[in-house]
Amino acid sequence: MAESSPATRSPRPEFRNINALSDLPSYRLPAAGIVSILHRISGVLMFLLMPLIIWMFDTSVSSEISFAKFSAAFNVGLGFVPGWFMKLVALALIWAYLHHFIAGVRHIYMDLTHSVTKEFGKSSAVVTLALSVGLTLILGAKLFGLY
Questions:
Q1: CA-CA distance, 16 to 18, in Å (whole number)?
Q2: How does pLDDT run along the chain (147 residues), one tens digit per residue?
Q3: CA 87 to CA 140: how far, in whole Å?
Q4: 3-state secondary structure of 30
Q5: CATH dotted code for 28-143
Q6: Where are the domains positioned within the chain?
Q7: How far, in Å, CA of 64 to CA of 61, rounded?
Q8: Quick check: 56 and 70 in contact, CB under 8 A?
Q9: Please, are residues 90 and 145 in contact by the beta-carbon 8 Å criterion?
Q10: 139, 144, 145, 147 alpha-carbon torsion, rounded to 10°
């Protein structure tokens, strides 16, 4: 097999270092990248708020009196923290759990079926984002008493 002459070879790709200040603001991250970053953020959020999750569970199931205290934390507040802020924190935890769970199922499905293509990655990422945000909005409406 003969080698091609230097004149007929395609040019080699040129790689350069990126400048974080000028290149990153114009970079458009694909949907799969956004889901990946949000998966990590949701995991960290759930980990950091684990003491609150444990307190909420313990207070809600210990007794009727502790359940009344738990309910009051979301209605009138807890100490200097207003009730609406407690609801926002709970809503953030709802989103974190839903997103982390749905993105985890997406990753497991991709691992089991070897569905690792650019098209499937994009479409499943969009579905993951839509489901997690949609379910969070529905549960948030219930949390804030809209239905």
A1: 6
A2: 555 666 677 888 777 777 777 777 787 889 999 999 999 999 999 999 999 999 889 999 999 999 998 899 899 988 899 999 999 999 999 999 999 999 999 999 999 998 888 999 999 999 999 999 999 999 999 999 898
A3: 9
A4: coil
A5: 1.20.1300.10
A6: 28-143
A7: 8
A8: yes
A9: no
A10: -40
